[in-house]
Amino acid sequence: MLNDRKASELVTKSLRRTLTDEESDALEKNLTDSKELEAFAKLSRQIQISAVEIATLAERGDVTIGPGLSGEAKDRLKDSITAVQSGDVQLSGTADQLDSQQDENPLKRTTLLPSGSDQAWPQQMVAEQGSPYQGADDARIGESRFTVIRPLGKGGLGNVWLARDERLKRNVAIKELNAEALQSEKSWQRFRREAEITGLLEHPSIVPLYQYSFDKNTGEQFYAMRFVGKRTLADAIIEHHERIRSGERDDAGLGLHRLLSIFLDICQAIAYAHSRGVIHRDLKPENVALDNFGQVIVLDWGLAKLSEEGELVNHLSRESNIADKALAQTVDGEVIGTPLYMAPEQASGDLDHVDERTDVYGLGGILFSILTGCAPHETSSELAQSNLKEVLKAIAENRSPEPSDYAQSVPRELEAICIKSMAFKSYLRYEQVSHLADAVELWMAGQSEKKSRYENLRMEGRELRADLQSSIRDLETNARFMSRLPPIQELITAQGDQEIAVWRERLTTIYTGLLTAKSDYQTIAYCKIEAGVCSEIVRVERHSTDHSNIRSVPRSRLRKVKTNPFLDTVIQQKPEEVLTSLVCDADCEPEDNCFGDDDVHLVAAVPVYDQNTEEPYGVVLIDCDIDRVMRRQVSEHATASEIVIACDIHHVMMRSHFGHVVEDSISKTVAEETPHFCQAVEVLQNHLEFIDETNTEVYGARLWLTSNRHGLMYLLRSGRNKTHS
Amino acid sequence: MFFAVKLAFMPQGELFLVKSTERTKQQLKAILRMSNNPSTATDLQATVIPPEQWVDQYGDYRYRYAYSRLRDANASEEVLQETFLAGIRYSHQYAGKGSQRGWLLGILKRKIIDYVRMRAKHDRSSSYEDETDPSLQLFDAQGNWKKGAFRWPRQPDEQIQEVEFRQIVESCLDELPETQRAVFQKSVMDEKDSEEICKELNITPSNLWVRMHRARLGLAKCVETKWLNEKEELGHVE
Fold it and tell me: Do B216 and A12 touch (CB under 8 A)?
């Protein structure tokens, strides 16, 4: 007799139909004796029938068997099928499992996400490459919901909407294919490719992509990205140039500096993209968004080319990794819309030569736009009257435009950078974007130093002018004072040689004292003017070679000459009105002809009236050695690399180079000797100052001796290099 | 005679201890004919449905099948997903012979086999040694039934009870340890021979036998308990 445990085992064997006859007999015996065994046997039998029934019904899909698919599970399955059909998920893993009965990793499987999952790319990569956490709960599946608020913009490929992320309660921008693009398989691919590339580029100046997904209702793909506002670099450039046109010069430098800072941010983003093997190929101000807080965002990577050697090329899905030529085929008229910033190699369709330097050209185009307010190929486009082929042909064949063709006042060094970036031959461009950025940054750094230097230059120029003005005022004051001395009137009325000699001596003593005090004064004379003849009464002069030797000219050596226009003018002045002018010889030569080998003098003259008759009697002249004054001035102001003092007829009166007088320049014209001052000279005909806004190198200041008639020009130039020696 | 006793005991005329497989199948077919669960799948015979409609058309059926084998909602959904994806991948191989539904069922069966096999391999350390033994609950140290180990009043004899009973069996299958359930399902529900089961689950024949017996004991006790509890709640315990 078997115990119950053994008997129960025979029941199991019986149900498995493996009982031997002997076991069958033993079981039958036990069944009659044990109600529990009988119950177990009957129940097990019934369970077996029921289990087979379950299996059979399940195979037939009977609705009473087990739970059905939940709604969510159905959605997930539908999504996975949709994803596979649309290429979201590759089937390689699944297919391999189907084929292979020997898969070593049971949990390595394609993970399909529901629409709206944030994890599409990483999960796909996990599916393809395996995850270090396989075997753990390696999926975080969620859904997002966006509510479209209003349209933001339209492009050739898609529409951009402002939308609300209902989960995070924030605004985002959503891009989706437009109705036309939806019809094209290539557009689907390109859209997906754009999303993938944008998503793989993580840089502060590249628009962050929040999610790429499919709309549950329509099945159409879209991606959500940071909402960066509508303002682009193109708007900022337009504003900058409108300000310049409206005369806001003070803001121009600042505006340019801001735009160049933005430009540097773009360069950094593109340099980063290049480091990941991505070439943007569609760089233009419209593709650079500016948010309200100075953030620069490079958009629109739909035309990006992936370098074969780049790391990202392996990260794109099969569908997105379309050949460059296939991508380019869709370009014509469809994508780029405007070729205004296109490099020649792009325009000619020479796609094999499209590389990082193509983006250097694009960046050069943006710099061009910043400098001129125009797109590089704007003229070509206008000439071709929107005929795309003609425009492309022009770009591919003609030399690259230069900023100065489009605008004046373009900083020369920046223009040089721009020209190099946009060189027709790509090998002549900057090799890397970082080199271009460095050049611009260097210019900006130099520019602030340059600006500081220029401010010093302006200060120096103004000081020079003020110094001479002060000297002239002093000269005029002294001349006026000298004409009011008692001996002046006494000499008019003096009778006899003795009386005259007394008053001459007194006047000589005073004049000698003034010359002793004023080392720049060369001569002081009191002259009688009568019938066109100028007769010196008293003359005290400094020795021509021995500067310290001051002497009174004896009566026998006093000169009597014909008056010149200067003296004629002076004698016609009202009492104590001083006339100051530059003359070669105060006594005889007209000022305009004084330059050459003659010494130039600054002369202040004041008429003397007879107090008795109240008629003009003569003049008091003080001759100031302007050459000496100028030499002292230029030697004391050595900040400027070059100082030129020129007269009204643009002759160089004094020229110094780093504080040293350049002797052989004197008496030559400004145009001959220093053509870089010509623009300043021209401006100074009508203005008191010339400020070099563009290159901040030259400063000019005008000093009028006779208001708006005679004067001097101070021309200063900054710079570190000793040129024009 | 034992057979005669059983015939008297079971009104449908089913045999309890049988040596003939053929006879059991005929009985089951008879039971299925009596079932009031006509399949709608016949409507889909020879119809080729595009993949995007598979979930609606086949999802529930195939899921139920997968669930009946795997007793795990996530696993069932997963193998179903893989079945559909493989169906898309190999759609060119479907020549239109037989129904698409049947073709997908074939894929699903392979997927279930793969899944169970892989799960068994992946979870070998915990699955190889089956430590859940209901014998301890049912037998004393001498191997005799504990008092009241089984109280089975009668077999379900009405259709409503069959359905009810089936549901209890299903729920007890859910509670069965995976190691035992896999053996039971393959043996009973899939009617596979021992050699095949051992190969699929990578276990020895003796291990298979031990698991099978434990599964039957466990299922029987579970079904008995649930059935009696249900009847007690309804107030007509016999």
Answer: yes
